[in-house]
Amino acid sequence: xxxxxxxxxxxxxxxxxxxxxxxxxxxxxSDNGSGxxxxxxxxxxxxxxxxxxxxxxxxxxxxxxxxxQYAMQxxxxxxxxxxxxxxxxxxxxxxxxxxxxxxxxKTAFAGSDSPLNAEQIxxxxxxxxxxGHAVHxxxxxxxxxxxxxxxxxxxxxxxxPSLAKIFNAQITMWNDPAIAKLNPGxxxxxxxxxxxxxxxxxxxxxxxxxxxxxxxxxxxxxxHSKEWKAKGSATAEKSAGLADxxxxxxxAIGYVELTYALARRIPTVAIATGASSPVDANVLSSSKAIxxxxxxxxxxxxxxxxxxxxxATGSYPINAVTYEIVCDKGNKPxxxxxxxxxxxxxxxxxxxxxxSFQGYATLPATVVNKVRSNVGKLS
Length: 379
Description:
The chain is an alpha/beta fold and 379 residues long. The protein has helices at 2-13, 69-82, 95-103, 118-124, 160-167, 177-182, 203-215, 238-248, 258-264, 283-290, 336-347, 349-352, 365-377, and strands at residues 22-25, 29-31, 37-39, 59-64, 87-91, 109-112, 134-148, 157-159, 194-198, 234-236, 252-257, 270-272, 294-296, 303-305, 319-327. It is elongated and about 60 Å long.
């Protein structure tokens, strides 16, 4: 486990070169004099380097989840290296924004850490002609880490009720008796807690508040939502902004995907779940919890119901699964062959095998196999 996190840190450090959450990776080509890179590769449907099947050359635009930003960077790099006729741009603007872009027909696919609701599925029929509608393909999972900045405290334990009270401004000092009880022998400072949350519409917020509302309903009187509903606290845009806020402010606490905590070397909270010992956020503990999820949906639609209330030993309870959202039929004919090939690569063994080194959890084999099968049925 230690080696995985170390590798992840080295890999994720390169993510700091990403500007404004936009990932653009293209094949080498010639400049047409307008400053745009024009690929010289001919359209192909043949196998690319490493046996990767390439779809017909196209330019693909995707947007959405910041949780999968590092995974998408890896996928795009490896796919376009093998299939140089395709250009892929992924704009990590947040799940809510990605859903909106897709439903307005602006993108070939969306990344989202929370599923579309029934009203949005109905709306998707306008961008999925011929009787189609949007479907969800779970592609990557991972822990939502609770990050904190508390000098001198190298290990901090919290549980669902204390987290709910902290993020709802009911516990406001770090040496509060409720926190002290969970951390015997730890010298907690008499310092105000600076709770922070996402300012944008976020699937990470949706999953974090799903955990709080399910496991600590008496302390978290709000429904889960992509928009923050609780009392006032500091705000920051996107996961990168929230992680930076915690790192830069003593006494701060926030919630981000583990990948962002690893990249910035921010300590994370261990969660007391009722198991024999508190559980740290890492790839293995998240994978174990996600393996307890229940598949839902019909046809080619596949949504996972996560078990936020897990008490299994070594299962980290606060997780998210990122879905790629496309049409079951009626996808844009000019981009669908390339999109389908890219999705097929993402779900392949080669596409999935390096994700744990990026700080992502392993999806159950039965789920990944189902995703591969479903992609092949889409049109």
